[in-house]
Amino acid sequence: MNSKLSKNSDFFQALAILTGTIMGVGLFSLPYITAKVGILTMLFYFLILGAVITLIGLFYGEIALRTKGLHRLPGYTEKYLGKRAKIVAFISSSLGLTGAILAYLIIGGRFLGAILQSCFGSSDFVYVLIFFSAGAILTYFGISSIAKVEFFLLILFFFILGFIFYKGFWVVNIENLFNFDIKYLFLPYGAILFSLSGTTLIPEVKEMLSKNPKKLKKLILLAILIAAITYLFFIFLILGITGQNTSDDAITGLNGFLGSGVIVLALLFGILTVFTSFLTISLTLKKILWYDLRLKKNLAWLIACLAPLILFLAGFDNFITVIALTGGVMLGIDVIIIILIYLKAKIKGDLTPAYNLSIPRLLVYFMILFFIIGIIYEIIYFLK
Question: Which of 26, 48, 161, 348 could cross-link with 195 by S-S, CB 3.0 to 4.6 Å?
Fold first, then answer.
C-alpha cells in the first residue's frame, strides 16, 4: 500500500513539475497574438503544433527510457549523433533555455513592479533583480526544493485563474475573439511552439518516475493536454475582456476593465506562473552545463542564472520577440536534433523502453522539413 502511494505521489509531483514548466511565460503572449489573428487561426495552430509537440515529447521520453545513465540533450546527442552534433545541440539548447529564462525575467520583473511600484517606487530593473535573486537562490538548491511545492503552486495557479474568470466573465465580449489581420498570419508559430514545449524537462521527470517508468507516456500526454486547454481558456478570458486593448503580457491590459483587487490577484497569478517555470528551466540549464559540459556545479549554476540577466542588461527586453525567436528558431533546432536522436536510439539504444512508438518514417522526415521551414521563416520575419 505504501509503495502504491509512493508511486502515485511521484507521478503527481512529476506531472505538476512538467505541467508547471510547460505553462510558463509563453501563456501571457497568447491573448495578444490572438488579438491579431483571431481565435480560429489559433485553434488551427494549437491543433497542428499540439499534435507535433506531443509526438516530440513522446520521442524524447522514449530516448530517455532507451538510454542508460543521466543525460540531457547534448549528452544524448553525443551518444547517438557524435561529438560535432553535440556542439550544435549544446549551443541550441543552451540558447533556447537562456531565451526562455530571459522571457521570465522580462515578465516576472514587470509583474512584480506593477504590484510594488506604487508603494515602494524604484525602477523596473530593481524588480527584475528581486525576481532574479529569488529564483537564483532556489535554483541553487535543486529539484527537490521545487518538487515539494510545485504541486501546491499549481493548485493555487488554477484557483486564481478560476477567481479571475468569476470576476471577469461578466464583461467578456465574444466578438473580441474574431479579429483577423493577414499580415500576422504566421506570428503564432514561434509563440505556440514555445508555449507548449516542455521537452527539456523530460529526463528530469523520468528520474522521478524511476519506480514506475511505464507512466512516463501518460504523464507527457496529460501535461501537454492540460497546458493546451488552460491556454485556450486563458485566451478566451483575457481577450474576451480586453479585446484590441490586450497588452503583450496579457495581465497589465486588464487595468481599467476589472477592479484593482482583481488586477493585483491577476499579477500575483502571473508572478506565480512565471516563477515556477523560471526555477525548473534554470535548473535544467544548470544541469546541462554541469552534467554534459562537465563544469563545476556552482559555476554551472552561476552561468545558468547570470547569462539571461546579462542579455536583459544588453537590451534584449522585447517580450514577444524573445518568445517567438526562442520558440521558432532555438526550440526548432532542438526538435530536429531530438527527431534524429530518436531514429538512432531505435537502433542503438541500451535498454528496452517502457513504451515503443511506431511512427512511419515518412511522417518523421516530414516533421524535420516542417521545422526547417519554421526556422527559416522566423529568422526572415524578425530580420525584416
Answer: 26
Set of cell numbers at residue 369: 522539413
Phi, psi of 296 (to 5 degrees): -65, 150
Residues in the chain: 384
Joined grid coordinates for residue 148: 515539494
Report the phi/psi class of residue 180: left, alpha or beta, with left for phi > 0 and alpha for psi in -120 to 50. Answer: beta
DSSP, collapsed to helix, strand or coil, labels residue 23 as: coil
In the block, cell 509583474 appears at: 111
Q: Is residue 190 within 8 Å of residue 324, measured between CB atoms?
A: yes
Number of Cβ within a 10 Å radius of residue 320: 17
Pairwise CA distance, residues 313 & 34, whole Å? 30
pTM above 0.85, yes or no: yes
Other CB atoms within a 10 A radius of the CB of residue 347 amount to 8
Task: Give per-residue pLDDT as tens, 330-366.
Answer: 999 999 999 999 999 999 988 888 899 988 999 999 9
Q: What residues does each domain of the chain span?
A: 2-98+143-246+318-383
Q: Which three cell numbers stand for residue 33?
A: 497574438
pLDDT in tens, 223-282: 999 999 999 999 999 999 999 999 999 988 888 788 778 888 888 888 887 887 788 788
Cα 35 from chain centroid (whole Å) = 21
Instruction: For the chain, give the longest Cα–Cα distance.
Output: 61
Q: What is the DSSP letter of 169?
A: G
Q: Which residue type, as a one-letter code, is found at position 142?
A: G
Contact between 92 and 334 (Cβ < 8 Å): yes
Q: CA dist 28 to 33, 273, 324, 349, 379, Å?
A: 10, 10, 13, 39, 22
Element (H, E) at 17: helix 2-22
